[in-house]
Amino acid sequence: VRAGDLRKWLECQIQGGAKLRLGLRGEAEGDPADLAEEPFEADFLAQRGLVRELFWESLQGDLDLEQAYEARVWGLREAVKAPAGFLGEGDRRKALTLIEGWRSLLAPGTEPQVHRFGSDRSRGTLAAEAHPAISWPLELGGRTVTLVLEGQTEPQWAEGSLLLSERKAPGKKGPEVKDRRELLRAWFDQLLMAAAGLKVGPHRARVLASAEENRAWHADLPELDQAGARERLGAWVREALLEPRWTLMPIEGVLEESAKEEGDLEDWVEKQQGSDPASFSSLHGPLKGLLEVEVEPDWKALAQARYGDFLAWSNSWGGGL
Fold it and tell me: Is the Cβ–Cβ distance between 110 and 97 less than 8 Å?
């Protein structure tokens, strides 16, 4: 099982299920040649990925950020995902400001690290520390099999996960839905490392925010041991493979609506259909057209069983602000 596919299943059971059960890869995208005119602004996800990639690369040594940015954004322009000339100047200034802001929040000499398990060949900016695949016996469909998890973590620092934010500091507010989705990824990495026996106990997700002001804060995740991590990951694999559901249950809607007393996931999806552009986890993956798919009718009970205490503890920064 690819760890990234399992994580995608946690974010969207349809897109992740297509990856896990059917082996589908890639993203469903339109042909750039279909765009008759140059875009007025950069594709959000492509620009976001470029900025993060440059930030991690900048921590590994001397790097001329302006030259590196121009070299990378050229590929986006070729794919009609970023404007050229003066139209792209605002994107360039914003990107460089974000990167410098994030860098200012890390102590000099900080070296983020990625952990790679097994033969995963995912490319990343940071060099990955290689480990054996994570494996253990798992009861699956009435027989015992060996579960083998391969993949890699997001960037880590000495105390836990490093998260990057383009938003301003939250003040006394709790995490927004986007923050909680990032905390889900931090929790998933914590589970991987605990299951591998690399790290048990405390795990701190540190958020670097570069918007109106440069500021860092953190969330302390509940402690884990190896047995508990393997039990949780194994339960997810078992559910994903043996109980496939081809109904909509995007993590963003689950997080937002489960926090309400009268949460309505179907209403949330309908509102997304009316937004331009709609953007949530179910729209990114190998399958197209998921806005028209039926919403999972039993989403509340399913979310509680699948995510457990995460739904509660991810709704607060604790003492991390």
Answer: no
Give the number of other CB atoms < 10 A from CB of residue 290.
Answer: 21
Number of continuous H segments (helices) and E segments (strands) in the chain: 11, 9
Cβ distance 10 to 181 under 8 Å?
no
Neighbouring-strand partners of residue 161: 156, 205
Dist. CA 15–CA 108, nearest whole Å: 40
For the beta carbon of residue 266, count every other beta carbon within 10 angstroms: 15
Can you tell me whether residue 125 is helix, strand or coil? Answer: coil
What are the CA-CA distances from residue 299 to residues 7, 18, 247, 261, 281 (Å)?
18, 19, 10, 14, 16
In sequence order, the 6+-apart residues with CB closer than 8 A to the CB of 180 are 255, 314, 315
Q: Which residue has the tokens 């440069």?
A: 214
Cα distances (angstroms) measured from residue 54 to each of 62, 90, 96, 104, 177: 12, 17, 9, 15, 25
Does the bond joining 222 to the residue before it have cis omega, within 30 degrees of 0?
no
Q: What is the pTM of this model?
A: 0.89
Residue 41 pLDDT greater than 70, yes or no: no
CB neighbours of residue 143 within 10 Å: 7
What sections of the chain are H helices per DSSP?
3-11, 13-22, 44-58, 65-78, 89-104, 177-195, 226-242, 251-258, 265-273, 299-307, 310-313
Q: Give the C-alpha separation, 205 to 236, whole Å.
A: 22
CA distance 204 to 196: 18
- Give pLDDT tens digits for 245-257: 999 999 999 999 9
